[in-house]
Amino acid sequence: MQFSIREEQRADAPAFQADFELTDHRGIVQTDEDFAGRWLLVFFGFANCPDVCPTTLAEVAAVMDALGSDAAKVQPLFISIDPERDTPEKLAEFVPAFEADIVGLTGTADQIKRTSETFRVYFEKIEEAASPNGYTMGHSSQLFLFDPQGGYVGAWTYGTSAEEIVSDLRARM
């Protein structure tokens, strides 16, 4: 199984908590507290990503579909690491294409930096003339799982199948 667990160093103390205040793809400010009581599937990426991000979000959509009625207990989040291009309007075009009730979140460069530090993810702007606006983004590519109290449970590596994720998620729910 590809689920990496840095969890349960102590059963009552997750490694870290989901903590953010960002603007969703409808222009509404959302915080981690708005999703309390639901499992969170969180992925950091950017809308102009040519492969990793759409592939992962397609897997998330397959997970949500496979969960059936249990999908109501799970909220997938896509947090942009490209605030320069990924406005709420851009995310409103991008995330609904996956038909999985994914909430796209973005913010100022400072908000994204603080959020990435909280979640312990890496990202950087990479100059690339052939990319939109002359750059692309390098970034961590794991799919995070948080429990209904916002505590970190673990992460699946890029390429983990929807079937593996569903199996593990169902066992935890």
Describe the protein in words:
Keywords: Copper, Disulfide bond, Metal-binding. This is Protein SCO1/2. One of its GO terms (molecular function) is metal ion binding. Pfam families: SCO1-SenC (PF02630). Belongs to the SCO1/2 family. This protein has a single domain, classed as Glutaredoxin. By secondary structure, it is α+β, with helices and mostly antiparallel strands. Helix 1 packs across helix 4. Strands 1-10-9-4-5-6-2-3 form an eight-stranded mixed β-sheet. The chain has a two-stranded antiparallel sheet with strand order 7-8. The N terminus is likely disordered. The radius of gyration is 15 Å and the shape is globular. A hairpin with a 5-residue loop joins strand 9 and strand 10.
Brief sketch in words of this structure:
The chain is an alpha+beta fold and 173 residues long. The chain has helices at residues 52-67, 88-94, 109-119, 162-172; strands at 3-4, 21-24, 29-31, 39-45, 74-80, 103-106, 123-127, 135-139, 143-146, 152-156.
Radius of gyration: 15 Å
Strand tally, please? 10
CATH superfamily heading:
Glutaredoxin
Treating each run of at least 4 consecutive H or I residues as one helix, how many helices? 4
Pfam families: SCO1-SenC
Protein name: Protein SCO1/2
Family: Belongs to the SCO1/2 family.
GO molecular function, one term: metal ion binding
